[in-house]
Amino acid sequence: MTQSPGQGQALDNLLTESRTFPPSAEFAAQANARPELYEEAKADREAFWAKQAERLHWETKWDQVLDWSNAPFAKWFVGGKLNVAYNCVDRHVESGHGDQVAIHWEGEPGDSRAITYAELQREVSKAANALASLGIGAEDRVAIYMPMIPEAIFAMLACARVGALHNVVFGGFSAEALRTRIQDSACRLVITTDGQYRRGTPAPLKPAVDEAVAGAPSVEKVLVVKRTDTEVAWTDKDVWWHELVDSQPDQHTPEAFDSEHPLFILYTSGTTGKPKGILHTSGGYLTQTSYTHHNVFDLKPDTDVYWCTADIGWVTGHSYIVYGPLSNRVTQVVYEGTPNTPHEGRHWEIVQKYGVSIYYTAPTLIRTFMKWGADIPAKYDLSSLRVLGSVGEPINPEAWIWYRENVGGGKAPIVDTWWQTETGAIMISPLPGVVSTKPGSAQRPLPGIGAKVVNDEGVEVEHGGGGYLVLDEPWPSMLRGIWGDEERYRDTYWSRFGEQGFYFAGDGAKYDDDGDIWLLGRVDDVMNVSGHRISTTEVESALVSHPTVAEAAVVGASDATTGQGIVAFVILRGGAGDDAGGAEAIKALRDHVAKEIGPIAKPRQIMVVPELPKTRSGKIMRRLLRDVAENRAVGDVTTLADSSVMDLISAGLQSDK
Ligand code: WT7
């Protein structure tokens, strides 16, 4: 395998990296994507999407492709009816592929399980019957708080099958975060496990559910999968999965639901403290996840082994582990654990074991692999890999090249896919086999998608210019709103460029001289830590809810591995933090944030300060705090109410660095 050049040299070269990588003739000849797709979509966008929708089985065909008359609330494939789970499972069994492995599941402690489509059909049917026996049906909300075990996927598909909305909450979130997400959407059922494996040791999970449910009166039952055999407290709401689900009939007749029937809610961070429940519906969502998965990853269902390393707690897991791949009859790997358990070659060992051919991960993990060293992937046979994907944050050219050389054997095309929880599916990405890839750029909107870079006034910028990324055409998998908050939906996404009718993504972007799009990170108060979205306000609220904190300001500071790291500036109440360097107070605060939100939101660094920089109208100037957090000279302070504040901060910094 080709090795990348020495680190220092690589850095110098890559600051000016401008190579492009044209597809090989061999890859292009077999690619699912064709160059004509761009033209076809441009000629008639709606006809193009209608054609993509035919990838699915519709019980009743739609009579209108798009109804945008009530913008920004879209309706796609109006009048159509389908069952999403049937499309992901049963139809593959009916077409004679029941014996094909759908999921090669790999547990963290080394246990594994191969699940065929026929088996998946039985498991999902049993789970759907179990939901029905608990009175769960169309439009009910079900929270799923589980590690990456097969039952999590069965549970999602069972919800889809009976028309209930799942609300998956990442297993790393705290009881409090779980409670607010259950309560906001009034979930009637929670599906969870006794515990989960974390870096080789079982950790309890159910106690967090017990705590959340105690404060969430809508919950009637809690369905518990036994995973770690951890002893758990039992309440009268609790039901064991193995008792209820395993005793159900393994056949279930799916009902066809309206194309706009809600499929799921997924909470994501916004610029305020309260997470937004992003709502997705059925027909359009499944059409676009299926279409993008087929074309962007070039999936060949008979020969490929696909692996997306995301967790189902995030939208990537929803769209590119569950719905897109399964609707395309994938054979995929699902891995429960962390990449360095029990050793730093775990991912490559799995690639070798299953002959993974398509691998989709996040830049933060690629940079972590770089840190661990190229000698680790070099020990394994990775020659099966033929397409590599990246998602979650901008990928720096150096990591891109490292990925190509050390994982992709110097030849696998890399697809840098830009999208969001709100967009539901990939929006901007090169098409492998069609587009020459370019390290660091997500390049161009997919056929059927309208995206551009505009200035403050909403006018498209010239090639070479920068501004904001907007989406200027409705798309099938777009969010249909924020659960219970129509106003917030309009305000957040549609008011910034309301006149032009553009969806404002919240990302800065630029065009290069070829007109390719480069994403530049969020322009709002949302941080991106290891590809996870965390709002500054959410962390600030958690900090000020601690009795020792008088005021707090949080910024995302650039971080070589995680993209951004959370840096907090706090003013402590009189007396608190007087111990040596305030170390104890700081530790207590980090733990408190983990308890309020989850360990992923723990600040990398907390600085105790006497004052915070504010404008005359009382707004915290995060820009100046970011200068401090990133060890830069502090910028222009003339708009501060008290310009000496920054000197005070710099002089008296106590930090836990
Ligand atoms: C935000 C959305 C989409 C699944 C994972 C994150 C950033 C995402 C890229 C990329 C540059 C990216 C954006 C976006 N982002 N992919 N390929 N290049 N930035 O979903 O939590 O909804 O976050 O992630 O800032 O707005 P999410």
UniProtKB/TrEMBL annotation:
Q: Which InterPro entries match?
A: Ac_CoA_lig, ACAS_N, AMP-bd_C, AMP-bd_C_sf, AMP-binding_CS, AMP-dep_synth/lig_dom, ANL_N_sf
**Per its Swiss-Prot or TrEMBL entry, what cofactor is needed?**
Mg(2+)
Query: From what superkingdom does this record's organism come?
Result: Bacteria
Recorded hits in Pfam families, A to Z, give: ACAS_N, AMP-binding, AMP-binding_C
Q: Which residues form the Acetyl-coenzyme A synthetase N-terminal domain?
A: 36-88
AMP-dependent synthetase/ligase domain: from which residue to which, for each copy?
95-483
Write one Gene Ontology MF term. metal ion binding
Residues reported in the UniProt entry to bind CoA? 198-201, 316, 340, 530
Q: Where does Mg(2+) bind?
A: 544, 546, 549
Could you tell me the EC number(s) of this protein? 6.2.1.1
Q: Does the keyword Metal-binding apply?
A: yes
Residue limits of the AMP-binding enzyme C-terminal domain? 538-619
Q: What happens to this protein after translation, modification-wise?
A: Acetylated. Deacetylation by the SIR2-homolog deacetylase activates the enzyme.
A single Gene Ontology CC annotation of this entry is:
cytosol
What is one GO biological process annotated to this record?
A: acetyl-CoA biosynthetic process from acetate
What this protein catalyses is: acetate + ATP + CoA = acetyl-CoA + AMP + diphosphate
User: What CDD domains does the annotation carry?
Assistant: ACS (cd05966)
Question: Where ATP is bound, by residue?
Answer: 392-394, 416-421, 507, 522, 533
User: In this chain, where does the modification N6-acetyllysine occur?
Assistant: 619
Assigned keywords, A-Z? Acetylation, ATP-binding, Ligase, Magnesium, Metal-binding, Nucleotide-binding
Functional summary from the UniProt entry: Catalyzes the conversion of acetate into acetyl-CoA (AcCoA), an essential intermediate at the junction of anabolic and catabolic pathways. AcsA undergoes a two-step reaction. In the first half reaction, AcsA combines acetate with ATP to form acetyl-adenylate (AcAMP) intermediate. In the second half reaction, it can then transfer the acetyl group from AcAMP to the sulfhydryl group of CoA, forming the product AcCoA.
Q: Give the family per the record.
A: Belongs to the ATP-dependent AMP-binding enzyme family.
- Give the protein name, as stated in the record: Acetyl-coenzyme A synthetase
